[in-house]
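the two lines:
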Amino acid sequence: MVEPDRKDPPIMAIDRDGLDALIQCLAHDGYQVIGPRVENSAVVLGPVAGVADLPKGWTDEQAGGHYRLVADGRGEDGALFGFTLAAQGWKRYLHPPRTRLWQAHREGRSWRVEAEDAAPRYAFLGVRACELSAIHVLDRVFDNGQFTDPGYAKRRGGTFIVAVNCGRAAATCFCASMATGPKAEAGFDLALTELSDSASARFVVEVGSRAGAAVLTGIPHGPATAADIAAAERAVANATAQMQRAAGGREMVDDAAGVLSRNVEHPQWDKVAARCLGCGNCTAVCPTCFCTSMEDTTDLSGDVAERWRRWDSCFTLDFSYIHGGSVRRATASRYRQWITHKLSYWHEQFGTSGCVGCGRCITWCPVGIDITEEARTLAESEGRT
Amino acid sequence: MVAVRKPKLAVWKFSSCDGCQLSLLDCEDELLAVADAVEIAYFLEATRAQVKGPYDVSLVEGSVTTPEDIRRIRKIRKQSKVLITIGACATAGGIQALRNFNRVYDFITAVYAEPDYIETLATSTPIQDHVPVDFELRGCPINKYQLLEVVNALLNGRRPVVPAHSQCVECKAHGTVCVMVSQGTPCLGPVTQAGCGNLCPSVNRACYGCFGPKEMPNTASLAGWFGDHGLGPPHVRDFFRSFNAGAEPFRRESEAHE
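prediction for all of em together
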């Protein structure tokens, strides 16, 4: 768990062997280390046992409804974190797609209920700044002082986070305009910046917690040079520059919350609904979409009952089903519900935007519906009237 | 459980390949428990023993393709408290509903030496076109876990957990990478109901739509994507014209690309 130090610790550097040692060290400490790896045609998150499992030499090309893995062409010198974001984020570990909440066994005329309380202890390797922000958004949903989800709190509480700052932005990234990246500012145990232009393949390391400092003492490291630190700053500045709209990058419009709340009725909703498949991909890949449904199951005898919680989506008809039918029958109303919650009334509910600018909903929407463009279309229509 | 009369289960076959009935026999680990929980009163695929109706639950496989089928399904409906259709044939007319887009007489003359001996309808239609259906289980074939879930829910008096959302939801829950987005492969997943267990996408193949249309499918938008990715109208038409060709949203979309 992250507890910030009182004073800024010195900035360190490790090489690839050091990173390998970090993974071993975390595994040795009892963490299940989850990090990026290439599977099929994308970078995905999964268990990693060492640097050899990381997506060395792979980068990605992303656009609306488009993702391709692309070799960075540098062979053995290829970057380990040259890609931007894995296909899905850390949500599937902190808030899994399916979770059994409890199991009940019939005993005579009553029931014995057993709650699920096992939680793996994860170390996350390669959390991007936007994803770190997303985890903090989920924290406010599941562990906000008023309500605590015990399963989430348990999984989250034991998590060790190694953030990795971005040296490049994908065409779908817009974290700079959401003020969530591309540099991880807080909430990590260790934060790495890969110096991919350096022949010696080094990482600048910032320590974010006592746990991070303790782990670092166990692996080969040294102080970062002034040149290393300058190179790390240049890398992050490069990613920021790539997201500037004036330079062909992507930005969320100013005051998206206001724009959405003022345009509940708008012809654009029907236009986007004509494209929207209502498939739910955007909500599944969104690192902050948290909605679920409960499923009750029994065995054939009726002597064992289970309650499961699974991801649901405001794009399904069943999601808004109440007595008498579904409240949001039209796809237009479902898309409006999603984007308005995400960008606007999430602020009222949780004191923050529900969007962190990762751009996954743009990339993984099969038909490439673009949250930034939809918000911009509404904003620009206001300017015209 | 309180000792009560076991519910009588009947399994009926219409025009079909028997694959969905086999899914019940394929339950292996759970089959003895099922046989223990219900009285299998009529199931020719499994036993010659026949118990007369009425039946508590009838599972109906296959589509209606002959005048005799119409008479038989009406009789079955009268004898059944609950009637559940299983599989693409029973719920959408099956692959044999391809005849609906052509003249059935042409097929008969092409296949049979004495076409006049064949008495058949011009169309292959789902059971629900002829009698009221209480629940339909999709798939070509059905998923055995969904079948068990429905039987189980009936026995325990609860709602079956059989969501009507898209295959994409199943892909994302499984951690399957989207083949449309990452490879540009045409896939019916976004308009197809989940439930198969993510069979094709999890081995890096596109969805064939075996489970038929999801709730409120936007087939036109998906067909637009197919067109943008180089598929000509005949290919787009054929995508929607397979096991669930007769399902209304797929039929309409395929006819838009004739």
